[in-house]
Amino acid sequence: MLQGTPILVLKEGTERERGKSAAQNNIAAARAIADAVRTTLGPRGMDKMLVDSMGDITITNDGVTILKEVDVEHPAAKMLVEVAKTQDQQCGDGTTTAVVLAGELLKRAESLLEQNIHPTVITRGFQIAVQEGQRLLEKEIGTPVKATDEAILVDCARTAMGSKGVYGSREELAKIAVQAVRKIVDQRGERTVADVDQIKVEKRHGGTIGDTQLIDGILVDKERGHPRMPKDVHGAKIALLNSALEIKKTEIESKIAIKSPGQIQNFLDEEDRTFRRMVDSIKASGANVVVAQKGIDDVVLHYLAKEGIFAVKQVKESDLQKLARATGAKIITSLKELTSADLGEAAHVEERKVGEDDMTFVTGCKNPRSVSILIRGGTEHVTQEVERSLQDALKVVSSVIEDGVVCPGGGATEIDLAVKLRKFAPTVGGREQLAVEAFAQSLEAIPWALAENGGYDSINTLIELRGAHDGSPASRNIGVNIENGKAADMWKLKVIEPARVKRQALSSASEVATMVLRIDDVIASKKTPPAPPGGPGGHDH
Questions:
Q1: Domain with 497 in it: what CATH number?
Q2: Could you say which of 88, 93, 392, 416 is catalytic?
Q3: Of these residues, 40, 60, 65, 95, which one is catalytic?
Q4: pLDDT, tens digit, 9 for 90 and up, residues 253-285
Q5: What is the CATH number of the domain that holds 347?
Q6: How many independent structural domains does the chain possess?
Q7: Where in 130-221 does DSSP place strands (E)?
Q8: Is 96 a catalytic residue?
Q9: Which of 108, 120, 201, 460 stands 20 to 30 A from 309 (CA)?
Q10: pTM across the whole model
Q11: Sequence-ordered alpha helix ranges (H) in 115-169
């Protein structure tokens, strides 16, 4: 105030929240998001039905899918959606765990704020707890495994799919996921890399989930270019082209002046000869299958069919690259350069009918560096959910192969971390130890939610788990048995998760909680209404 006149720094219509009310509103919004997905956690978790503005329906209990589909308005809640997205990109699994943990951390932090503990002290305590938690995961809780141990990889894939809608078929799907990832593993110096983008996933409704199959090669969602081409090619020699087999139109405007009927015929004959030369150069290289990224002229298709060459046109660039990895072919830009050395090999190239569509199967590749999975299911919603589950399983298997460390699931890791962090808290000293204790308490939200979603008494389960984690090496594997709500050894039940999932969940949940807690002022500009149709005047012309 200056001589009784208010000074307006912010624009009219700007909303501003400060101090405690800003923190409380942000925490409430973030907790609302966490509570929305909490019921989907674990094998007994419920599904959500999401209807978008177009009326399309998604039925899922995949945390990240739910949060992506829901149109979130509040800025603090949007930060929790980002946590789920990051978790999904890094690990493929544990999205719900990360969001529930972040929501719980904020809930505990709120009660500390009410005791007049400064947000900076709380966030520092959280950071100390995360560092200690990461150390415990690495040194005490995590178990090293070899990438060749197929049984453990299958267990991890099965655990990742345990909470999804494919519960009945997860055994077969887990095996498919493990076989697929093991085919695409690369050794880069000391590091092992398993890039799941090299696995092509196609889905078609019709059949059952049990009809889902792994294809030792690539599945192209296209049919052959001409009905007279062979449907099935044995001992395929494959040419991959990213240029068009057509007469190019010139970049600049050009005209052809024709003075006599004979010249028209010459012009057409020359065009025909050009097409013939294209087919001859393909034949000379020894190729009997052509896959082109761009178009192929109808005349060229006719000549290829006469030569008995199988051709597919307008294939996606990503599919072309996968074909190159699977068959060992080189992608060629100009036909003039095509030689037999550039061709890829496959035992079989055939067109098969899947559901209502014809698809091209390239199978029997000698050492495929890229493979495909064809998902089947009764309806479209089923195939979509199977695809989401399979993507999670593929990511999980690849992270176990890359890191070589796993830990017990079923809330065992969280409860063990909670017990150990409680013992560690007094050594921190100062007010930060209250934040470390709050962090330990927050971790217990995971086994609590697992028991609650299973229909059991969460308090009894939690007390039993705390008692079972007595500090002995075997006790670290004890988590919630979802069949009876009691404490049980997770290794015996084969509930195993990659350590990366837990590491990422800890760090992203604490980072977002820290970010929300450090906000003490929310300044929101006035929302501008959408412009009327038809430009500035507001009238359609």
A1: 1.10.560.10
A2: 392
A3: 95
A4: 777 777 777 777 777 777 777 777 787 777 877
A5: 3.50.7.10
A6: 3
A7: 143-144, 185-188, 191-194, 199-205, 213-215, 217-220
A8: yes
A9: 201
A10: 0.78
A11: 119-136, 150-161
